[in-house]
């Protein structure tokens, strides 16, 4: 499933006559990282018509005066200035030098004017901060690098920040997660403009997959929180939660430790992290399980207990939704990739006993009766998930989180994939 654009007060505007859809302007600033800056230049600025990729016309524009210093002290000189943005049908802001500094007002005015004239505006990684400063993300879903998402949510509360997405397509405003996710979004733009065949041909030239699989940014998330929380009264509560993930506790427990009502705690936590506390807590437990699966020989049952899940079924359900695989399949793939594994081979036997042979049949690529086991296993997991909706004693908490959605506008879904403008539903699903 995917998501239809949510456009705030207006709808997608007709492109002004002076703008051309095939013209892509890349807006560069001093201090921006060279990798992110180079992504749209490579995707939209190189003629690959011989490979079946339609050609764009690229305009590289300086967002401020003077040579633009980038990674390693390199200096760039853009051939165009802000005035060239008036000709572009698409404008890409690949990065911004500092999430604590305001972008130049002249650049923000140019972006607002371009959007009013129907241009498609794209922010890669920290480029989302420039779009937010211009007011273009107000009332819209957006993403950025997971490390900066809490800061974006706190600084611009009108933006519906989702740190789990690789990219978000909201029609005429698009944003991506960090670094390599910019490639994903640019390929998506080519796919939208010229079809899957053209995007596939470009992906082959770039030696990248045309579409990345499920999981979004979730598999890359760190346990860290924004620096601002270090001086906040909630910092002690958050630190306690991270140190006690092996225990079964719920958000009510955290609210009590903060001497707040559950409702007040939810609001305060969201304002600091951009995430609902229940969503954050489950994510931390899954991340802890991920580390134990990578670094220990504990069975899945043992991992579930050491991460505070009430049962292995609860772990499997949350783990599959966040990382796109069962715990056993994830461990098998990780060990195959890294050459790890137990010398006595006992780990595989324990996993089969705990989860059934089906997951391993899928993970190992074997067919036969294993497929039936996998299907039955997934059905069992789904039934178990329904029974475990109250994991951590959170039935009341989930209702509370849902009731707060109308007040904060931030969705609490725990499925992860790029959001695309093809369905009206606001329930994000998995990427095809």
UniProtKB/TrEMBL annotation:
Q: Which SUPFAM superfamilies match?
A: Class I glutamine amidotransferase-like, Homeodomain-like
Q: According to the UniProt entry, which residue ranges have a biased composition of type Polar residues?
A: 414-426
Top-rank taxon, per record: Bacteria
Instruction: Look up and give the organism this protein is from.
Output: Streptomyces taklimakanensis
**Keywords in UniProt for this one?**
Transcription, Transcription regulation
Please list the residue ranges that the record marks as compositionally biased, kind Gly residues: 338-348
Q: Does the keyword Transcription apply?
A: yes
Name of the protein in question: Helix-turn-helix domain-containing protein
Region: Disordered, residue numbers: 336-432
* Pfam families in UniProt: DJ-1_PfpI, HTH_18
Q: Name one GO molecular function term.
A: DNA-binding transcription factor activity
Please indicate if the UniProt record lists Secreted as a keyword.
no
Q: Basic and acidic residues compositional bias: what residue ranges? A: 349-363, 375-413
Which InterPro entries does this one have?
Class_I_gatase-like, DJ-1/PfpI, Homeodomain-like_sf, HTH_AraC, INH-QAR
Q: Which residues form the HTH araC/xylS-type domain?
A: 235-333
